[in-house]
Amino acid sequence: MSFSKASGPGTFPGLPDLMLVIVTVALVLGTLAGCTESIDRPKTFPVSGKVTYKGQPVTRGTITFQSDQGHASVAEIQSDGTYRLSTFGEADGAVAGHYRVYVISNTADPNLMPGSSPGWKPPKDLVPTKYAKTETSGLETTVSEDKKEYDFHLE
Question: Hey, what domains does the chain have and what are their CATH numbers?
């Protein structure tokens, strides 16, 4: 007895391929559905403060807290020198622990592409470049549940 694939009216060529695609999609969607649970993240604590240079507010730039455990928390410095750190979400703060801190503040326009946008000029640093790296900034702090304000006075 011999079996052969039937073809003609009433048969669906490519049906086994379609079934394979449907089963694969179902498996992928089932796997992704299991991934919708929240990721366990370390607890963060609110961190805000003010950055000044020679007694005046630093009016733009970023401040970064680099954790000894590898977490980085970043904030945009506002026009009055204030900032609020973000680690996993907007302004959620930082994980408790020791941090080395650095500040980058210059006149760069983030909307212009260096060297190719009309009007682009090399940026001028608004604070000494030593503050732009953890290795040279000399800025350190320890984030804890008890403290919320972390001011940095650059000279």
Answer: 44-154 (2.60.40)
